[in-house]
Amino acid sequence: MRIISKPLNKEIIGKLKAGEEVLFTGTFYTARDQAHKRLVKEIGKRKNFIKNQIIYYCGPTNTPRGKVIGSAGPTTSSRMDEFTPKLLSVGLIAMIGKGNRSKEVRQTIKKQKAVYFLTLAGCGALLSKKIRSKRLVAYKDLGPEAIYELKVKDFPLIVGIDSNGRSIYGTQ
Fold first, then answer.
1. If you ran DSSP here, which 8-state letter would residue 75 be given?
2. Distance CA 84, CA 1 (A)
3. How far apart are CA 113 and CA 163, in angstroms?
4. Number of domains the chain is built from
5. 16, 19, 30, 56 — which has fewest CB within 10 A?
6. Does the pTM of the predicted model rise above 0.90?
């Protein structure tokens, strides 16, 4: 198992291979459908905070008293496919979610030398234990679908699509 931390860069990403297991320590941002729609709409209008960042397709549940975050499992990634090529083209370097991606997203990941990680579906409560802090960053009105900055330690990932476009799902 490879241990990586932020900041990720093209050199680290280039060494990752489809199917490889990773423990990640660092920071990433949550964003789902509505946040993606707004991010794409606002490209060029506001500071590009996704450049060289990682987006986790997640909408955490309400935070129970005494906890950092509620359940924080991955959302089906294909729901973001229509927005992903544009976000990759302006500097997004990695995504975390569950499930396969479209041919266009796979090709853009390869072109931009980015990476797509998978994490444990159905294990939101377990994953929440790896999250050390949560901070609202944007779109508070979206509630759990707002963008949050998460700081994590030893967050389990699998390389779903590597920077050479190889996918654990094949070439479908």
1. P
2. 27
3. 5
4. 1
5. 19
6. yes
36 as an active site residue: the answer is yes
- Let me know if residue 166 belongs to a domain: no
Residue 114, in any domain of the structure: yes
Among all chains, which residue has been given the structure tokens 């609202």? 136
Q: Domain containing 125 — which CATH number?
A: 3.20.130.10
How far apart are alpha carbons 127 and 75 in whole angstroms?
13
Task: Establish if 60 belongs to a structural domain.
Answer: yes
Question: By 3-state DSSP, what share of the chain in percent is helix, strand and coil, each rounded to 5?
Answer: 25, 30, 40
Residue with tokens 């799902």: 169
Q: Could you tell me the residue range of the domain that residue 53 belongs to?
A: 2-161
139 in a structural domain = yes
The region, left, alpha or beta by phi > 0 then psi within -120 to 50, assigned to residue 103 is alpha
| pLDDT of the chain, 172 residues: tens digit per residue | 899 998 899 999 999 999 999 999 999 999 999 999 999 998 877 667 788 999 999 988 888 898 999 999 999 999 999 999 999 999 999 999 999 999 999 999 999 999 999 999 888 999 999 999 999 999 999 998 999 999 999 999 999 999 999 999 986 5
